[in-house]
User: Fold this.
Amino acid sequence: MADQRRDGRDVRGSAQETGTAEGRAVPDETARAWAALVATARRTVADGLVVGTSGNVSVRVGDTVLVTPSGVPYERLVPADIVGVDLTGRQVLGTLTPTSELPMHLAVYRATGARAIVHTHAVHATAVSTLVREVPLIHYMAADLGGPVRVAPYATYGTEELAENTLQALTDRTACLLQNHGTVAYGDTLDQAYDRTAQLEWMCRVWLTASALPGLSPTLLTETQVNEAGKRLRGYGQPSRPSGA
Assistant:
C-alpha cells in the first residue's frame, strides 16, 4: 500500500506537504525527478500502455536510480513515497519495495548512457512480441530507436536472465520488445523514453493492422531506407536558441 511503510506506520501528513522521505529532506533535484517520474507513470496508464500497476518507470539522478514501487497504484503516489536505489540495487531512499523489474532497470543503466527508462505492457507491442523476433520495418521512425527493434527471448519477470536478454536486444538500440511481456525504452529524459515507448507501440499497431488484411502483405522498408531517414531525423525540429534569445 502506498500510504503505509513496510512496518505498517502511516507516512503521510507533513511529509506529503514538504516533499520529504520518511521525515528526511531530499535534494530539490531529486524531488523534482520523483515528481516527473510519477507523472510519467500515470501517463502510461492514461494512454493505455499499462493496466493497473503493471509496467514500471525509473530515472537516474547522479548515482541514484529513482523507481516506481512494486504493486502501488500510481495515482496514490506522493512525495513521501519516493523510492531510490544505488547502481548495485541497495535502497537509499524510502521504505516501499522497489519494482520487481529492478534488475532489468539497473542492468540497462550500467551498460548504457540511459538516464530514464519506461517499461510497459502495451497491447499491440506485446502482441507483436509473440509473433516475430524483430519488428518488421513498417515505418521509418524505427530509425529513432536505432534500427529494427529486436524481441528479447522470454524469461521470468524480475530475473537476471530477463535483464541479460534485454541488454542483448538493446545492443545499438534504444528500445526493444520482451517476448510475451511488453516493451522497454530508454532515453536522456523521461519524456524521450516515454515518446520512444509510444512510438514503438504505434509502429506495432500499424504493422498488425496492415497484416490483418487477407491476401495482402504490407510493404516494408529496407534498412538502407530507414538509415537514410535516421540521418534526416537527427536534424528534425527547431534549432536551439541562444541563451536569452
